[in-house]
Amino acid sequence: MNNTELIRTPLFQNHLDLGAKMVAYSCYDMPVSYAGLKIEHQAVREDVGMFDVSHMGEFTVKGPDATGLLQAITSNDVSKLSDGGIQYSCIPNGEGGIVDDLLVYREGENDYLLVVNASNREKDWTFINDKAQGLNVTLEDTSDEWTLIALQGPKSTEKLRPLMDVNPGDLKYYTFMRADILGTECIVSATGYTGAGGYELYIPNSKSSEIWNALLKADVMPCGLGARDTLRMEMGFCLYGNDIDETTNPIEAGLGWITKFTKNFTDRKRLEDIKNEGPARKMIGLKVLGRGIPRQGYQVVNESGQIVGVITSGTMSPSLGYGIGMAYIDKAFAKPPQKLSVRIRNKDIEAEVVRFPFLQKDK
Question: What is the mean pLDDT of residues 11-21?
Fold first, then answer.
């Protein structure tokens, strides 16, 4: 695929005007960096930054059978949501793996918004429509109607509040509201993928550039996908396609907390059996003790040189100053503070199993 075939978000020209480095990502032409990954990463951790994540997909699910459909296809318990609530969940594929991880927003009774990964938008749409056959439910793909700006960092509220008539700081984590930003109704969601606090703003496309520029004027640093990736890795947040996919189950991936066996759903028995027996491997964090950066696909070995796992995501942590990796490790070697090694360019570099998040709140 060449650049002329890549999809452009409504903020594409804004990124070019700011001198962003653009890359292909999930069929979109997206900014990977502006001032530089470390600078952008630090801004989000200590101050505030914003990301264009308009590549994400949005589906509405409405009708008398909407709740029943979502209860059947997602792992979390949708019945626990109240209006204005948000739930992190995943869609099991019927074979023990994961179709996608997603956010479920409850707008009202039997009225939901699903936010899915860009790379899975078409697959998810087909899967959900197949499961909705014969049900009294209306599905709509509204992805192309929204610009999504992730405003992240400890000063997010300070920067967003002047643009609104209400205080977004009143929102509790994982709740949302419909409210005006610069006079246009948007969805303001107290969520994010960085662990730094903040909001995700769902903005009608026609208003997106104005709101982006207003945040720029308020000294919010534009940030690219590079910093978004290092920020989420420091928290141990899974990325679909790296850490979870059609072959991984939510129990081994550390997503048992969003897998509720108080209801019936796809793969319930299979996943309950895995939970009761214990998964053969576990997603864990690896702190690299020597010099080296763990990368996706690198082997993890024990003291005898036996391969006991594989890195799924890895980076040099900008906040911590050492290499960190997310990895699936055989359960016998997955308990902290187990010493292992990451095989980097034919050298075994010592590492230690640690719990997520890598970045603790006192750092």
Answer: 98
